[in-house]
Amino acid sequence: MFIDEPEYSLHPVWQEKILKIYSDILSGESSGNFQMFISTHSPFIVHNIGLRDKLFVLKKNDIGFTEIVTSPTYANYSYSEVVKQAFNINLLDKIKEMSKDVVIVTEGKTDWMHIKNAVFELKRNGVIKNLSYRFLEYDSTTEMGDQTLLRFCKELKKLDRNGAVICIFDRDNKKLIKDIEHEGGIKHWGNNVFSFAIPIPNHRDDNDSISIEHYYSDEIIREYVNGKRLFTADEFDSNGIHGNKEVLCMKRSKCQSKSITILDSSDNIFEIKTSENVALTKNEFTELITKKNGSYKKCRLQSVFKNS
Length: 308
Fold this sequence. Notes:
Blueprint: E1 2-4, H1 12-29, E2 37-39, H2 43-46, E3 57-60, E4 66-69, H3 79-87, H4 89-97, E5 103-106, H5 111-124, E6 134-135, H6 146-156, E7 165-169, H7 174-180, E8 181-182, E9 185-190, E10 193-197, H8 218-221, E11 231-232, E12 247-249, E13 262-263, E14 269-271, H9 282-291, H10 294-297, H11 302-307
Parallel strand pairs: 1-2, 5-6, 5-7, 7-10
Antiparallel strand pairs: 3-4, 8-9, 9-10, 11-13, 12-14
């Protein structure tokens, strides 16, 4: 039997049990031996395999090809650790501990760093005053994203808080905007929980799909550092070939002439001549920006604080 993503629409408790249910059914229906081949993204299913089962973990390598991971480390996590990682319970607990503070929570793993450093620069130059926020700080090992942050909004609104929680989303998922904004502005979820998508800066007013990196000029985004930089999707044709004919993007589905989506190292951008990845990670870009405080003077993040 071949089963694709049996975890779909199942509660984690049922995801834990589903393989045994299938096995029991097949054992009752079959007088002989049987085999199940299952593809899954669920840690709950993977964590519940039997001693006689074979597990193959697949992952894309640096050049975009799928390969088998020989020693997946997460396989030894306890059930409670799997639950905490899958649902970001540790982050929720952190927010609960800051119940008296105004807390900013961002969608991207580096977004809070950009905003925090911009606040410092804008305060120092007297552009903004009397802002007192705390940031939910987390690193690149923490799973986040717009769906997780949306879930945070839904969970946090159930808790009584003295201080506000402000959830700031990227503006790159049009389907999500109606859920996180109210009539184009801030949405109040209840119990001092608010959300909005980052506004479109003036120099990007011809684009409606914006992430935090777009608050910097193209000159800053496309600046090479040690042979690497960030790219935007409109620099490549539909075959993934860069305009200079020297660079190739392996994720061709992201390459669109009218899109300014930020492409980084994870998008497998290689110099054709050397086969070396020539894109920065977003973490590397953030670190470089942090070291170059002058870049924040050229950043248009003031519009974020008009909302908050």
